[in-house]
Write a structure and sequence with these properties.
alpha+beta; 5-stranded antiparallel sheet; 6-stranded antiparallel sheet
Length: about 725
């Protein structure tokens, strides 16, 4: 969180966190006087902790502490108004909902309501003691008046002087209660003044419910109980979204919060199963809410026939279990296209979106990584390569890290008039910045076919999903880059094509292991020297960059020793010494053969490599039991005897690495038998097709716990 500024050492604060020992509630009185002076309707005092750069909420007023619960304890470096005010020793003014969303998105996501806020430091010239914030309803002007500024500043200065005196006298401070309006007395008469007034309210044809600042029912008339379908006694003292099952939706609690914080009349409609639409209208004050409940006949007529008993709203906010499921799915995404597919298939439907675009950031420009749901892809693709300096919703949220929600096309066009020229056929949008590891990696755009409201809980969920998508996208981008690098390196180390001598056909396949970097030490080569060609296949221990680099050295060495005319046994000895002299701590297996197609012969030398298979023209297959020596890289004095093998016209020689036949739980002899049967049954196929058959049907190759290399050589039949 960072250290506090000069003069704000944690131990310079007050001894504790609330009121003085004299009995007067120091903080509460100061906050109440401050709020009354500027007609604010809520506020809080924070004090600097004694042993760390942290602000702790000591007392609140006007609204329940739950409204500011995420910020009860904040670091001085936190990007919120009270921390900025304390850290920078200045007044911070936030003029409304849009200003809050632009400057303090963390707060706007949780409290997306119309209200203004001022935060000020509580400090003397030498010492920081804490900070204060106060809020006004949404009707407050967007500019703080000079009188309000002077009044707040003077009040905080006076509070700082009092706290300095408390600290100097080393007086203990006691905890002070939050300042909330007293709950209405229990009983109807106590609530409304007279029994006759209560009778009058009871005779009204519509429901009346009184909620305190905590959202608890303090009074409900008979009509309200009948409309809600819950007895009055079961309502009193409860929150409606808890005691009324069909009101158990975050949207309804959000409306209560919006009314209290903005002090605006707020309304909504809700469906009471099976088919009764009710209208709720909330009238807020500084002491609570009065809610009027009536039947919403206009809504019922608008939706047509009464819904079936099992019907449900068209869209429900994604549940916690769905979030966990989506998080799990995103962790399994490997490449960028996997992430795009998952967002389109899982995330978009769960939040009611009909289309999605995932944009990445590279080189100061936006790049379209993928999209789904657009009838005209050109509408999306024209934004590919757009500079981040351009003023568009996608670039703005990426540059600021603040999500943007547009409930209708009118809202979008008002802020971005250029969108008139690029209609995409949709009516509402959520632009989510994708921030991973503290840096922007892209933007996710969710589009809706109809105008779509984004209540606070939905904005919070979408913002959280944006974080999950960002983490998955960051991993996917790194994976794709690594994968591209691995494939490029592997392609550079293996021969681009095979040039067999006259009378010989050749085909080869290479498959990396399914785990790791998808690059390995398996290699093959065909060296077209004259008068005799040579073939080699080998396997350097491991499947990583080190193994691949060493493989490249071995392949180059084999080519060089072959080109100078060394015999097969000498090529193996020279390669062995090359590996030992390189200082590498890895070993390698190798099979080398000199081809003489005119004589129909092949001379082979083997260094700890699996034995090749030979398929005769009649279809019979045998394992060639060749003489050989130890693995390369073990013994500098090792020798590698050779074996001459007949290579009759039409016969096929299958060279392979152990990844083709070795897998956990499979006996090597059984695997060789299975490979031999495949070769026997399919050996008359064209050589490329035969190579595909061998790697496709090998059980070990399918699991691929190791790299797989296959080199097939066929002696062409005469004529």
């Amino acid at each position: 969180m960072g250290a506090p500024p000069a003069g704000t050492e944690p131990d310079a604060g007050v001894p504790a966190a609330a009121g003085s020992s004299s009995g007067k509630p120091l903080l509460s009185l100061a906050l109440a006087a401050m709020m009354e002076e500027v007609q604010a309707h809520s506020g809080a005092v924070y004090l600097l902790a004694a042993d760390e750069p942290v602000l702790e909420m000591s007392v609140t007023a006007g609204l329940p502490r739950a409204f500011a619960a995420p910020w009860e304890r904040v670091g001085l470096s936190a990007p919120i108004p009270v921390a900025d005010a304390a850290r920078e020793r200045r007044l911070v003014w936030v003029g409304g909902e849009e200003d809050m969303a632009r400057r303090y998105p963390r707060i706007a996501v949780v409290l997306p309501y119309a209200f203004a806020l001022a935060a000020l430091p509580v400090a003397t010239a030498d010492t920081l003691y804490g900070a204060v914030y106060v809020t006004w309803p949404g009707a407050h002007p967007t500019v703080l008046s000079d009188r309000e500024r002077e009044s707040l500043t003077s009040a905080c200065d006076r509070l700082a002087v009092r706290l300095e005196r408390v600290a100097r006298e080393n007086r203990p401070l006691r905890t002070e209660p939050d300042l909330l309006a007293a709950a209405p007395p229990s009983g109807v008469a106590g609530t409304f003044g007279t029994v006759e007034a209560a009778r009058m309210v009871g005779r009204l044809p519509y429901g009346l419910v009184s909620l305190d600042l905590h959202g608890r029912v303090a009074f409900a008339n008979g009509a309200a109980a009948e409309l809600l379908g819950v007895h009055v006694d079961d309502l009193l003292g409860t929150q409606p979204w808890v005691s009324v099952p069909w009101l158990n939706d975050p949207m309804y609690e959000d409306r209560y919060r919006a009314a209290l914080l903005s002090q605006h009349v707020t309304s909504f409609v809700a469906l009471r199963p099976p088919g009764d639409w009710l209208s709720f209208r909330m009238y807020p004050s500084t002491t609570g809410l009065t809610t009027r409940i009536s039947r919403a006949r206009a809504v019922a007529e608008m939706v047509g026939a009464t819904p079936r008993a099992d019907s449900a709203p068209a869209h429900r906010l994604v549940t916690i279990s769905q979030v966990l499921s989506l998080a799990g799915a995103l962790t399994e995404a490997v490449g960028v296209q996997d992430v795009v597919q998952l967002v389109a298939d899982e995330v978009a439907p769960s939040v009611g979106s009909q289309a999605v675009v995932v944009l990445g950031s590279r080189g100061g420009r936006l790049h379209v990584l993928g999209h789904r749901g657009y009838e005209e892809p050109r509408t999306v693709e024209r934004f590919d390569g757009l500079p981040l300096a351009e003023r568009t919703p996608g670039t703005h949220v990426l540059n600021t890290g603040v999500p943007a929600f547009f409930e209708s096309r009118q809202q979008l066009v008002r802020l971005y008039p250029d969108r008139h020229d690029t209609p995409d056929g949709f009516a509402a949008w959520a632009y989510l910045p994708l921030i991973a590891s503290g840096r922007p990696v892209g933007t996710c755009v969710l589009a809706y076919a109809e105008p779509h409201a984004f209540p606070a809980d939905e904005r919070a969920v979408l913002t959280s999903l944006g974080g999950l998508i960002a983490q998955a996208l960051e991993r996917a981008v790194l994976y794709d880059a690594k994968n591209q690098l691995a494939h490029g390196l592997q392609a550079a180390l293996l021969p681009r094509s095979l040039a067999p001598p006259a009378g010989i056909e050749a085909a080869a396949r290479y498959l990396p292991a399914m785990h790791g970097m998808e690059i390995g030490g398996d290699f093959y080569d065909l060296v077209p020297t004259r008068p005799l060609a040579a073939a080699v296949i080998g396997d350097v221990q491991g499947h990583n960059v080190t193994a691949a680099g060493l493989m490249g050295q071995i392949r180059t060495g084999v080519r060089a020793f072959t080109s100078v005319g060394q015999a097969p046994e000498e090529v193996m000895r020279s390669t062995n010494r090359l590996l030992i002299d390189s200082g590498a701590e890895l070993f390698a297996s190798c099979l080398y053969l000199r081809l003489d197609p005119e004589r129909g012969r092949a001379v082979m030398a083997r260094a700890g490599h699996p034995p090749p298979l030979l398929r005769r023209p009649d279809g019979r297959v045998r394992v060639l039991d060749l003489a050989g020596g130890p693995l390369l890289g073990i013994d500098s004095e090792a020798t590698y005897p050779t074996t001459e093998v007949s290579l009759a016209p039409g016969s096929v020689l299958a060279l392979y690495t152990d990844g083709l036949v070795e897998s956990p739980g499979v006996d090597i002899e059984d695997a060789l038998v299975g490979l031999g049967e495949l070769l026997s049954e399919n050996g008359d196929q064209p050589l490329d097709r035969l190579a595909d058959t061998l790697v496709r049907h090998s059980a070990a190759a399918q699991e691929r716990v190791d790299d797989v290399a296959v080199l097939l050589l066929r002696a062409e039949a005469d004529g």
